[in-house]
Design brief:
Shape: globular
Number of helices: 28
Strand content: 5-15%
Bound molecules: phosphoenolpyruvate, magnesium ion
Length: about 775
Amino acid sequence: MSDLHPIPIDGPSLGILESLRRIVQEVNNAQHLEEALNIIVRRVKLAIGADVCSVYLNDFDNHRHVLHASDGLRKNAVGRVRLELGRGLIGLVSERAEPINLDNAASHPRYENIIDTGEELYYGFLGAPIIQNRKVLGVLVLRQRERRHFAENEVTFVMTLASQLAGAITFARTSGELARLQQDGIPQRFLPGLAASPGIGIGVAVVVYPSADLDAVPDRRADDQGVETADFRRAVQDVANDLDRFALRTQAHLSTEDMALFDAWRLMLESDTLIDGTLSRIRAGNWAPGALRDTITEHAKVFDNMDDAYLRERASDVRDLGRCILMHLQNQTAAPIQYPDQTILVGDEISAMQIADVPLEKFAGLVSTSGSGSSHVGILARGMGIPAAMGVSDLPVGRIEGREMVVDGYRGRVYVSPGPAVHSEYQRLAADDVALTTELQTLRNVPAETTDGYLIPLYLNTGLVSESRPMGIEESAGVGLYRTELPFIVRDSFPGEAAQMANYRQVLELFAPRPVTIRTLDIGGDKPLPYFPIHEANPFLGWRGIRVTLDQPEIFITQIRAILRAAIGLDNLQLLLPMVSAVTEVDDALLLIRRAHDELLEEGYQVRMPPVGVMIEVPAAVYQSEALAQRVDFLSVGTNDLTQYLLAVDRNNPHVAKLYDEYHPAVLRALLQILAGARLHGKEVSVCGEMAGDPLATLLLIGMGVHSLSMGAGSLLRVKKVIRSVSRPRAREVLQIALQCEDSGAVRRLLMETLEAMGLGALVRPGK
Ligand code: PEP
Ligand code: MG
């Protein structure tokens, strides 16, 4: 503790803010919760000049406060002192959720003597609650031997620190550290994660580790740059060969769209950023592994810094590729794994290669401690129909090899060595799931038609990497939303007309004669291109979507030319404009589209002017849906952004995730208004946000009169099942009741009850 110097809270040289900043910085740099708590208690005790500083954390499961750190109390009290929730002064601070400042604690009616700590010797007491998201997580306590009423600036200082601590505690809770501190074993309860691929998997854990550790590579001077260069190039070629081999092996199980994943990796692998970046570092004197490490770190950081969760996930693809190259550089060859008949593949960061290595007939489930449903791994699992849970951060990966596991891909839950009750319950659910899948298969060749004969075409959402099962391709009415951002992101510069055209042609051909709706580039402040940086204070309200492409017409025109040329002879193209907030944007975009069309005709290309639609995803567009509908051929509602902008809730911010809800009455009313606007001009309205693929929403959307829905392929048959089970009048009745609800919870309950009453509850939860 010799490095500890007082950080005065109000001294002449250091302001209170600076003291706070320094402590918070130290806390944030802590490796784990215990270290963070110890820093806090030492620093706060010293800064305030108290005799004791302690932190009690709430153990909600066992209804008690547990002393987790202290500077001043007996060392052996930490972890041993446990107070029932609601008892004593600690309980009072927690109950009131406000600080309590007493110059003589023992005279307070709620005072209780805590045995084992020696606290009875102290008079002064200051307790500050540690709160996050309205929930008291614990109490930070200061004690003084003499009578002391803590000054106001000391109270606010402690409160501010307590609020900073809340973040670290929540993080530790979710990373399972608290559970480990409280009971050093594998939890018997389920471990929470994110639902990534629906289904129930029961099997045996096979743990996979990253094959090569880039972070462990040291810098080393290259003796011979020629040798390093040749080794690096050979390793890249080896990885390219591996990718081809794996692509060949998986192609029977994946859609052409999903196979595009391998193309994306090839693009990254062959990119100038990776190749030239590494070679120039070799020329600067580092050996190949060191040069590769720096290049990969730099490249991954670009994605790490993106606000968009999907794009952030691309950082792990870059690191994956880096590890593969390193493995070849180090001449490592992995020993073949013997997979049990029911394999649950488990890892901290599972690579696509490791997935491709598991024989499909033995693949029962997948669990990753990192990532989310939008990770490539999650997408692959969905594509292959493997139940998966991602982001299961509590899982003690090092201790579960060979254990029995259950993966609940509906709820993102995982059980390790489940007891007999859990096991048999999940066997029942798994059987139900098989029955449901079989039943849904029977819907593959029937129309998505209500019981009173109203057809609601179901389209697919795809991008460079689709979320489609192979069946989605034949099954869907076409593509309702083709996101074009990814081909722009995986390159080192804007793709040219020819490169883009090849991409678009592939998807247009794949679905022809069914329509394919290609959305123009929706890049912006939150999805910056590595080669086109945009720095903004409010990226979601900034230069995004059509705003960028109208300001940079050369990007727009190139894309439109590529799209129009790709559709020659197929005539199944529709264009969609994102992030529109004013009719003038549509007018300007239409002018540019016509210009591109006319130029191409003049150049001799037999292009046709496609139907053009506008995405309604900004509140301003809702109120102008009539004027917009007048200008274009159709409207498509992007409920993901519309919800974010209507509710003023950042769709990627976990702090406000609870407020993000498509079933909010305001969103429902906005949808009605859009339909009313379009109706005045006889234009159709589609929904292509995530809401379209949620079977819970289907009744509402039919009731409103939405003409078509576009979704990930995994949702197609579930949504079709709801459509085929209801008449439009009944859906309108349910909608009318939903419109009486004043909050999203009530809407959800109503819809859940209605689906259960229709015998369709199994579409949105496990079990029959
Ligand atoms: C939406 O906003 O609902 C949408 C479909 O677009 P994206 O998710 O690509 O922003
Ligand atoms: Mg959007």
